[in-house]
Amino acid sequence: MDNRTRTRANTVWLLGLTALVAVGLEVFTMAQPMSEPLPVESPRVNLAVAAEPSTSYVSGHETLGAIQDDFAPRTSGDRDHGVYGNWPRQGEQWVQYTWPRPITTDGVGVYWFEDRQGIRLPASARLACLDGERWRDIDVAVGTEGDTENVARFEPVTTEALRLYFVGRDAFSTGIVEWRVFDEGSSPAFAPKVDAGGDRVVVIGDRTHLRAQTRGTGQQGVTGAWSKVDGPGEVAFSAADSTVAAATFTEPGGHVLRYTASAGEHASHDDVKVTVRPPLAASGLRPVATRRYTLDSAFWEPRLRNTIINWIPHVVAKCEEADLKEGGINNLLDAAAKLRGEPHEYHRGYPFSNAWVLNTLESMCVAQMLDPKGDEQLAEAQQKLREKIDEWVPIVLAAQEPDGYFQTRYTLGRRENENPQRFSAGLRRDHEGYVAGYFLDAAVAHYRMTGGADRRMYHAAKKLADCWDAAIGPEPGKQPWWDEHEGMELSLFRFARLVDEVEGDNAGQTYRDLSKFLMDCRGVHGTGATYDQAHVPVTQQYEAVGHAVRAVYLYTGMAEAARYYDDAAYQSAVLSLYENLVHRKYYVTGGIGSGETSEGFGEDYSLPHHAYCESCSGVGEMLFQHRLQLLTAQAKHADLLEETLYNAVLSDLDLEGQNFTYTNPLATDDERYKWHVCPCCVGNIPRALLMLPTWTYTTGESDLFVNLYVGGTMSVPSVAGAALTVNQETDYPRGGNIKLTLRPDKPAEFTVHLRVPDRSVSDLYHSEPAVGGLVALTINGEAVPLEAEYGYASITRTWSPGDTIEFELPMPVQRVRTIKEVPANRGLVALRRGPLVFSFESVDQDLDASLSPDAELNAAYDPDRLGGVMTVRGAFENGAPFVAIPNYARNNRGGRSTVWINEVGD
């Protein structure tokens, strides 16, 4: 588990995290140029690339294989190509290279890693070789300097393995960016290492782009070629003998393509699996905007109540602090003053500090949509927030530049006479689009809240979008551009829908086209990296990489483009990214982002329990799955949205709505807190929680899709020409009984699609006992046959006001286990009931105890625990009783919590 808060060294690390890693690295890391291949001082061969690495210990945040990729770091803090680290271990550790045949070397080069937090340069280092069955020290001094390669020369040594030992300095851990081993000149040749790329999906009519990577020792030239190994129909390669090629297919089905690389007589290969599918049919689905709604849910009412009464007012107060160093309303007031020609301060905080002000404004607007139902305290809190909205909107508008541009970092500058150039390739890290996207979102929410009666924010948002459109595009006089932090892309689509609604069909097309152009520029115009998903064009991205929040924001925009433009290349990329994310890099809680790269994704199947799982990434994952449901009309995406909502996003705030967490590990003793040096999540969390109607329903021309089961009454503007309200009576997720009452304003024929929950959408996890189907489905009390397709039970009829649908969702306690490819979860089990994943807490039991695979598990509601929660109870193998609580309620009482618990093996 993550122990980073338990020692003094951990405190150093945490402070560093809040000051730098948590989005600060977005500014720092990406401002530097890309790494270049390590310079070879002479034609010497680096034998490390042919070795198999091993270690005494590698932390879950780091990657051992990164030390042999033959790339040159810029500094000892360079993570661009991954690093090795052994935090939180102390004392002597080691890393080892083993070759399939003996090599002869006379030197090594070591580039040490330090993050100036928990990992520092070592105090000492030594080198040993395997001599028969024992390790023998090599007579050489290995340097421990930072920001340089420590080259050590010695008399030639012939061995099958080298081991580098190093001792941490004081209480700090150690790490390596790169370790080279130089060939003396007589080592044997080795087959090159090959990476053919990740598995992916391609739709018929599109092609998949292939990029093989080969790493040879340099002793001989490397040649290679692509070939088809398996699959129906024909496969044509654009350049079969090149590492970079494209493949087209004639038949749908599973295909295996292979890249074989040769170095002299030595050859190796790697395969990539390609699933070929027919193009997606247009779903015709539309999102449901969050309008005035009522909750009748003992589960949701207290959580949203506390969010509105406690959390949002706290965030408002923080944003209004005159001396807030992270930047808040103070930046907007100063920008307005400068625009009026009055004295002002310079921009405070990160370039993107306007984001949390705008997110909070949106949250205040969405908070008005919940009917207080006579709750005087809730109504009073909403009224105060309504007054703040009226106070904030003029402040936001006054900070907008005359031509519509909005970002106080650019309006104010950070120092005298600084005038940053908008849309500059050198300033992509300044988050211009990220901030602008949240401006559009706030405008949409404000318009909805007022019912269109107040259009000030709407017109300001149009002016902003038009400002961007005037500067960016393929037309003469405009320029190509992309932002390192995505945000504008998905928000432009959302805003375009509102423009269509207000000004007529297709009135927002300009903004959709702008969004697609911004995405089409990534990986094409300017140099990018996997960190910001600009390493290749978006339609050639098949693997979830880089910063997790940026990634899912981009993927959401791509899903919108795939839907609106019927674009086969976008469809292929989006489906591939979905498959990689959900089946290779997805936590059982619905969280994403292991943190092994900067706030981002690690390798496939690497899911350490001390996950990063940033709160904003959970919100982004919900957005992505929501748009995929609109694209495909498949319930699995609503299943995943529900999983993330209940177990990741809902857990971001404590039960009272007083504190939050930036990260969401699956094993932690971290306490939540009131603020963060990068408060990007503080307004993002409540806006996601309060948009329940949007997550609950989607519609087609003559279709109503019921995606979530939430007690309350919500409105749907139009289905088959009828305005519709839907009332759900249920205590879900405590129980599984559901009753829907439909109230169209006139009888109308349409299809109701009821989600049939699938609790194991991700191939990473399997649950026992299996659960599926709806039980005892009736309409107006009469039983009807159940037919399900794509995860929905569909009922077509003429619906009249007052018609009811009733059914039950089976909700036994399930054991969840992970496939063997995920090393972090071997020998462990998790518990789930309905949509809720459970955690074990140290305040209730010994977390080192083991659960028998046949132990009886009982679910019960406990009104006296944590304000009332469902619990799962039973006994460990040693007879000690246990109680597990929902993951969303973890860490409200101190101590440790963990989702995964030991399971007695065979």
Structure keywords:
single chain; alpha+beta; 11-stranded mixed beta sheet; 7-stranded antiparallel beta sheet; 17 helices
N-end to C-end Cα span: 24 Å
Radius of gyration: 28 Å
Low-confidence stretches: 1-42
Share in β-strands: 25-35%
Describe this structure in words.
This protein is of the alpha+beta class. 26% of the residues lie in helices and 27% in strands. The protein contains 17 helices and 42 strands. The strands form eight sheets. Strands 21, 28, 34, 35, 36, 37, 38, 39, 40, 41 and 42 form an eleven-stranded mixed sheet that branches. Strands 2, 4, 5, 6, 7, 8 and 9 form a seven-stranded antiparallel sheet that branches. A seven-stranded antiparallel sheet has the order 20-24-25-26-33-29-30, with no helix packed on it. A hairpin with a 2-residue loop joins strand 17 and strand 18. The longest helix is centred in the middle third of the chain and has 23 residues, at 376-398. It is globular. Mean pLDDT is 93; it is low at 1-42.
In short:
With 906 residues, this protein is of the alpha+beta class.
Which helices and strands, and how do they pair?
Elements: H1 8-21, H2 24-28, E1 36-37, E2 52-55, E3 71-72, E4 84-85, E5 92-113, E6 124-131, E7 134-137, E8 150-167, E9 175-183, E10 193-195, E11 200-203, E12 208-211, E13 213-215, E14 223-230, E15 235-237, E16 244-249, E17 253-263, E18 266-277, E19 286-287, E20 294-295, H3 300-319, H4 329-339, H5 354-367, H6 376-398, H7 408-412, H8 432-450, H9 456-471, H10 488-503, H11 509-521, H12 548-565, H13 568-584, H14 615-632, H15 635-649, E21 667-668, H16 684-689, H17 692-696, E22 697-700, E23 703-706, E24 712-719, E25 722-729, E26 737-744, E27 748-755, E28 765-768, E29 775-779, E30 782-783, E31 788-789, E32 792-799, E33 803-808, E34 813-818, E35 828-833, E36 836-841, E37 850-851, E38 858-862, E39 869-875, E40 881-886, E41 897-898, E42 901-903
Parallel strand pairs: 11-18, 23-27, 37-42
Antiparallel strand pairs: 1-3, 2-5, 4-9, 5-8, 5-9, 6-7, 6-8, 10-13, 12-16, 14-17, 15-16, 17-18, 19-22, 20-24, 21-41, 22-23, 24-25, 25-26, 26-33, 27-32, 28-34, 29-30, 29-33, 31-32, 34-35, 35-36, 35-42, 36-40, 36-41, 38-39, 39-40
